[in-house]
Amino acid sequence: MRWRDEGIILSLRPQGESGVVLSVLTDGYGRHLGFHRGSGAKAPWRQPGTRVIAGWNSRSEGGLGYWALEPAEAPALRHFGAPPKLLAISAATALLDGLLPERMPVPEVYEAALLFIDGLGGNEWLEHYGRLEECLLRETGLHPGGDFGEGLDRLNRIGPALTEAAKSLGKPLPVARTLLISALQPRLR
C-alpha cells in the first residue's frame, strides 16, 4: 500500500542504530506510524511540529510502513529562541499523538493544527492553540458533555479573567486553564 500526503510530525522514537519510528498526522489518512532511516544529525528538521510532504509505503495495510519525507516547514527551528512557542508546539504535538486514534482521518483537527503552526509567527498563536485543543476535545468526544466538558463550559464563563490569569502566569491559555481545572476540580462537581 502506498500513498502521499501533507503531514505534521507528532513524535519520534529511536529504532535501531540509524532510524526512528515517526508518528505523522496527515490530512487524508490520519495519524500513522512509520520507520524513517537516517540519524538525527542528517535530518535536524525531523522534530515534532515540522510540516512535511509524506510518502508512506507498506507491504500490508495494517503493517508498520516506511516514510519518505520531504521537509516543508520546521517551526521548532524557526522559533528556537521563543521558549513559550516551543512549549506550545511540544504540548500540541504530544496531545495530538496521545489522543488521536491511529489511521483515522480527522480533517478538522488537521486544519486546526495547521492554523496553529502557521499562526506561530503572529500574535494570535495562543488563541489558535486554544482552538486546536477545543477541536481535539470535540473530536475525541471529551467536549461537550460529561464531567470534563461541563467543567470546561463552567471555566469558559470566566474567559476574560482566565485570559488575564494566563498572561500573568506567562503560560498559554490552555495550560492556565488546566492549572485552574486542577485547582478547582473539587468545586466543579
From TrEMBL:
InterPro entries: DNA_rep/recomb_RecO_N. Residues 1-66 form the DNA replication/recombination mediator RecO N-terminal domain. Pfam families: RecO_N (PF11967). It comes from the Bacteria. This is DNA replication/recombination mediator RecO N-terminal domain-containing protein. It comes from Elstera cyanobacteriorum. The lineage of its organism: Bacteria, Pseudomonadati, Pseudomonadota, Alphaproteobacteria, Rhodospirillales.
